[in-house]
Amino acid sequence: MDSAPTKIAYFDDMWLLQSTAKLVSQIQTEDGRQALILDSTIFYPQGGGQPSDTGFISDGGGNFKFFVEDVRMKDGIVFHYGKFDASETFTTNLQKGQEFNLYVDELKLNLHSRLHSAGHLLDICMQNVGLAHLGPGKGYHFSDGPFVEYKGTIPQNEVQSKQEELEREANALISEGVKVSAAVLPYEQASEMCGGSLPSYISKDSIPRIVKFGNYPGCPCGGTHVGDVAEIRSIKQCFKSQFSQDSHAMDPEKLGEGIASGFPGPDLTRPNPKSPGLNSQIQPMGRV
What we know:
With 288 residues, the chain is α+β, with helices and mostly antiparallel strands. The chain contains 3 helices and 15 strands. The chain has a 6-stranded antiparallel barrel. The longest helix has 23 residues. The protein is elongated. It starts with 6 loop residues before the first strand and ends in a 24-residue tail after the last strand. This is Alanyl-transfer RNA synthetases family profile domain-containing protein. It comes from Aristolochia fimbriata. InterPro entries: Ala-tRNA-synth_IIc_core, Ala-tRNA-synth_IIc_N, Alanyl-tRNA_Editing_Enzymes, Thr/Ala-tRNA-synth_IIc_edit, Transl_B-barrel_sf. One of its GO terms (biological process) is alanyl-tRNA aminoacylation.
């Protein structure tokens, strides 16, 4: 598609719930889905283990409403998938360059930000409780069972105590409060902010976006977060063991080998107070 990359406006303010943008194109995909492409967006496109924002798009005159059900990015272009109000059809006469109003669902944005930040906080806590030797894997920040994977071995007799220590550390930091910041930086400065190095997938000629929790080392990340970890409110952890397919039996000495998962607490659907904006601008998605 011959279009300029979509401006990711939520990089400038992760908690912006309303904005305006101009229509670039209106499409219907091969599978029948309808999508709007805009010159900028405050909707987070699914990626990095975090679900997309939802909400709706309308014109200033109230002539139509397009319900955004899914958001994806491809080659720098953001696709807002959804459907028009039941009383309208895909033949709605929309014009390229027409200005629209964008509205993000506040409760879902807050929930997704809390779940995502909880995953990052867990990374910090793993370091703090002496589990830095466990290699981080994938993160899943959806509400139907969020987790972060860490691959390695924990001695069987330490599994329970480490789980309890990890949970205490996470909730102590939540009670204490740690400010969260984000910024788009030149490669060298970003590397310094992340403890002296960046993952190999970050190009040296890029300007990565770095998310930082207090004075702890930052990491590349393109997602949304809370303004302070106190907004997470609570985290519950459990360890789950996972063994390779060629293991014929569970070795009791390696019962702690596998995945450590962090689960935010039960009060996830309570709305958060709106946090002040962060100063950040562009590029790329990182491991979360």
